[in-house]
Design a protein that fits this description.
alpha+beta, Rossmann fold, Glycinamide Ribonucleotide Synthetase, Chain A, domain 4, 13 helices, binds adenosine monophosphate, binds glycine
Length: 422
């Protein structure tokens, strides 16, 4: 039986906590810091994930057998390494392996070394501003300019003119994100998909493919966000693509990371571009995606606690998974008006109980808080309304029926989640 500490506070962590609580191997779950939705079923604790000593002390004091790390920041800061030094098992990569996400340049160089399909690119250091400009000025359009380090999802510009590309380069060299340099790469066309692989350093289990909806507006218009909705499994990813993803992308990654002395343990998030039979990597993340997780875990029939624990201990146990895709799931994000720019907080939320009267619906909390026992909005993405059904069409219809039952001032959402697949 596992005594688990989950790190994080978003919709992704609410879905992870729900999946861990459904697991027969989970004896006890703490979530740090969690959110009001998570607190309904798990014990939330105030721990600062940047204070590695405090997290380790909590684990030792409470006989925690497994730590699951949700977000990228604590992984990039080396929380997993600090805990492993105390012999605490962790589902999440080391700081060195987390560079697959924290440095786009590292990730691209790694893919090049191991022949993992991705867009052609060049990497420029913080001292190569002029070289980067010259390279971009000659590049075919569209051209993609990426800040090398973590930039909270804001470090990528797909430029359709050379002027736009040069402006993006100047902005990134201006130090807004830091001084990590940039990557300039070719444009990939096709449809994006997200595939998560549960990895133990050598072996993997891939979960149901999902599609995110990154833009704020219907029809993929307007600004980029953290993600406005997702569904799984995404039919655009065929059985043949899945085989390609396993054998040409995840397998060489695991072998390469192992050879280089930085084995990958945790959830590998493959951000992919699918174009006909071709699959290219747009990016790797070293954690579950948000909002894809809310959909992917809804169609996963597994003892997730035992699955993560086996991966953390280097001996992935496939028998913990009964099915990676039972039916379909759709997750519609309810955001605050103004997001991804400035938005109001503290607005009272009602109707979650009505939405959840349907046993196939779960409302995952993302940006919520409780004030005097009343639930209020507290973030850009507020809730993720997730429904399951035997068909995608029914899952989508159920999600939107539940969406209509929830109210808060300035509630915005996309009406076309999964429309591409229907
Ligand atoms: P990333 O943070 O690298 O995933 O980039 C954010 C978004 O920019 C991706 O989800 C894509 O929509 C887009 N993007 C990034 N790289 C490329 C590329 N090489 N070709 C086309 N679109 C891209
Ligand atoms: N859904 C995209 C991400 O989690 O980065």
């Amino acid at each position: 039986m596992e005594r688990i500490l989950l790190i994080g506070s978003g919709g992704r962590e609410h879905a992870l906590s729900a999946a861990l609580l459904r697991s027969t191997s989970c004896e006890k779950l703490w979530v740090a810091p969690g959110n009001p939705g998570i607190a309904r079923d798990a014990e939330c604790v105030q721990l600062n994930a940047s204070d590695h000593l405090a997290v380790a002390k909590f684990c030792l004091k409470n006989n925690v057998t497994l730590v699951v790390i949700g977000p990228e920041q604590p992984l990039a800061e080396g929380l997993a390494d600090a805990l492993r030094e105390e012999n605490i098992d962790v589902f999440g990569p080391s700081q060195a392996a987390a560079q697959l996400e924290s440095s786009k340049g590292f990730s691209k160089d790694f893919m090049a070394r191991h022949h993992i399909p991705t867009a052609p690119y060049r990497r420029f250091t913080s001292a190569q501003h002029a070289d980067a400009r010259a390279y971009a000025a000659e590049h075919a359009l569209p051209v993609v300019v990426k800040y090398d380090g973590l930039a909270a999802g804001k470090g990528v510009v797909v430029a359709t003119t050379h002027g736009e590309a040069l402006d993006a380069i100047d902005m990134m060299y201006d130090g807004v994100f830091g001084d990590d340099g940039i990557v300039i790469e070719g444009f990939l066309s096709g449809q994006e998909a997200s595939v998560f692989a549960i990895c133990d350093g050598r072996d993997m289990i891939t979960l149901a493919p999902a599609q995110d909806h990154k833009r704020i507006g219907d029809g993929d218009t307007g600004k980029n966000t953290g993600g406005m909705g997702a569904y799984a499994p995404a039919p655009i990813v065929t059985a043949s693509h899945r085989e390609t993803i396993r054998e040409r992308i995840v397998r060489p990654l695991l072998e390469g990371m192992h050879e280089e002395g930085t084995p990958f343990i945790g959830c590998l998030f493959c951000g992919l571009m699918i174009d006909g039979d071709d699959v290219n990597v747009v990016e790797f993340n070293v954690r579950f995606g948000d909002p894809e997780t809310q959909a992917v875990l809804s169609v996963l029939d597994a003892d997730v606690a035992a699955l993560f624990a086996s991966a953390a201990r280097g001996s992935l146990d496939a028998s913990t998974v009964r099915s990676t895709q039972i039916g379909y799931a759709c997750n519609v994000v309810l955001a605050s008006k103004g997001y991804p720019d400035a938005y109001a907080k503290g607005l009272p939320i009602t109707g979650i109980d009505l939405a959840e009267a349907d046993p196939h619906v779960i409302v995952y909390h993302a940006g919520t808080t409780e004030v005097d026992g009343e639930l209020r909005s507290n973030g850009g993405r507020v809730l993720g309304v997730t429904a399951t059904a035997d068909t995608l069409r029914d899952a989508v219809a159920r999600s939107y029926m539940a969406v209509d039952k929830i109210s808060f001032d300035g509630k915005v959402f996309r009406i076309d989640i999964a429309a591409k697949a229907l």
